[in-house]
Amino acid sequence: MPMIDVYAAAGKFSDKHKLAQDLANAVMKWEKVPPINLFKKNTAAFVHELSPDAISNAAGDSDYVRVQVLTPVGVLNREKQIGVVRELTDLVAAAANDPTLVDRTWVLITESPDGGWGINGHANTGEDILSAAQSELKKQGP
C-alpha cells in the first residue's frame, strides 16, 4: 500500500486533489492490487508545495518536480518500476499543463522493509496485508 509524495513549486498544479488521486490510482494499477477498500483507502498521495526558492539542482535550476513512491518491498518488478515511473511522470506533466516537465520530473521508488508500513498502531508485514486483503475479498463474495 504505497504512499506517494510530490514536491513542487507552489502554483505548479491547478488541481492538486485530482493529481493526488490520479497518482494513487496509477500506482495501484501497476502494483496490480484489487480495487478493494483496503488498498483504495490506504494508497495515498500528498502534494507538497514549496517556495520556488526552496528547490534547486546543482546548476541553479528550480523548475523541477520530485515524486517519491514508498511501496512494500518486492511489489514492483523491473517492468512495473518502468511503468510507474513513466505514468507518474506523464501525470505530473499533464497536471501542470506543461509537456516539457517530463524532462524535469524525478521519480524515486523506495521500498519499505517488511513490517515497515503501519496503520492503526500496527506495523504490517506483507503477510499481514495479504491476509487482510484475502479477508476483505472473501466478505465481498463472488
What can you tell me about this protein's structure?
This protein has four helices and six strands. It has helices spanning 16-31, 37-40, 78-95, 126-140; strands spanning 3-9, 44-50, 65-72, 105-112, 117-119, 122-124. It starts with a strand and ends with a helix. Strand 3, helix 3 (78-95) and strand 4 form a beta-alpha-beta unit. It is elongated and about 50 Å long. Helices cover 37% and strands 25% of the residues. Helix 1 runs antiparallel to helix 3 (78-95). With 142 residues, it is of the alpha/beta class. Strands 2-1-3-4 form a four-stranded mixed beta sheet, with helices on one face.
SSE diagram, text form:
Elements: E1 3-9, H1 16-31, H2 37-40, E2 44-50, E3 65-72, H3 78-95, E4 105-112, E5 117-119, E6 122-124, H4 126-140
Parallel strand pairs: 1-2, 3-4
Antiparallel strand pairs: 1-3, 5-6
Helix pairs in contact: 1-3
Helix run count: 4
Cα-atom Rg, whole angstroms?
16 Å
Mean pLDDT: 91
Strand order of the largest sheet: 2-1-3-4
Share of helical residues: 25-40%
Topology, number of strands: 6
Keywords:
alpha/beta, elongated, single chain, 4-stranded mixed β-sheet, 4 helices, 142 residues
Give a summary of the structure in a few sentences.
The chain is 37% helix and 25% strand. The chain has four helices and six strands, in the order βααββαβββα.
